[in-house]
Automatic annotation (TrEMBL):
Bias kind Acidic residues: ranges: 194-209
Limits of the SDE2-like domain: 66-162
Database matches in InterPro entries: RNA_Proc_DNA_Dmg_Regulator, SDE2-like_dom
Family the UniProt entry places it in: Belongs to the SDE2 family.
UniProt KW keywords: Cell cycle, Cytoplasm, mRNA processing, mRNA splicing, Nucleus
Listed name of the protein: SDE2-like domain-containing protein
Length: 225
């Protein structure tokens, strides 16, 4: 028996080895629709009017009436807004090569062909530049006072430097003399201070040594008395 479904609902059962036209006639009687408004699917395949379904299940599907509607007018409106391009380099020629690659090859060939001309032009420009540099200047500056002052300036600078060195050497000599005299004075003061300290230390020792003798004499006089 063949089970006939519409959606998830079981519609009816018919005998095996039934043709598609018979199944459509049965669905027409049960659903009240024309045969042109439905189509049959069995095991994922479309069932025609002459095909025979031996076993399994048959699904009845309703045809949806549709069409492009306003889609064509929408495409025409969008096409009018799109800017047309003249870049065809992404296209291919009859041999399958892209026009971009062909144009690049042509540009490379022309660049290689013009390499000699570019080198010659660069050499000519360099030669012209050297000739311009070797040419005598068009404008000359002549001023005798300026020339005399410029020639005398190095001598003046040298004299000023020598005088400055002499003055610096004189100041350094005076500073050295003052430093030596101050060092001598410090040394002499230190010697006198050391002598005073030595003298004080010796006098202190003498006083300390004298005190026990005086105390002993005092004790002797007291005993004799």
């Amino acid at each position: 028996m063949l089970d006939i479904f519409i959606g998830n609902c079981r519609l009816c059962c018919i005998d095996n080895n039934a043709k598609g036209a018979v199944i459509k006639q049965q669905c027409k009687e049960l659903l009240g629709v024309n045969e042109d408004e439905i189509y049959l699917i069995s095991q994922g395949r479309l069932v025609s009017n002459t095909s025979v379904v031996s076993n399994g299940s048959v699904h009845v599907c309703l045809r949806n009436v549709g069409g492009k509607g306003g889609f064509g007018s929408m495409l025409r409106a969008i096409g009018a807004q799109i800017e047309k391009t003249t870049n065809r380099e992404a296209c291919r020629d009859l041999s399958g090569r892209r026009l971009r690659d062909i144009n690049e090859e042509k540009r490379l060939k022309t660049w290689i062909a013009q390499q000699v001309d570019r080198e010659q032009e660069a050499a000519d420009n360099k030669q012209k530049k050297l000739e311009r540099l070797c040419e005598p200047p068009r404008h000359e500056f002549k001023d005798e006072a300026y020339e005399n002052e410029r020639s005398a300036l190095p001598e003046k600078v040298e004299d000023a430097v020598l005088q400055g060195l002499k003055v610096a050497e004189g100041k350094e000599g005076v500073k050295r003399k003052q430093a030596t005299t101050s060092n001598v004075k410090k040394k002499k003061q230190k010697l006198w201070l050391d002598a005073d300290e030595d003298f004080g230390s010796t006098s202190g020792e003498d006083s300390e040594t004298d005190t026990p003798s005086s105390t002993s004499q005092c004790t002797k006089t007291e005993v004799s008395a």
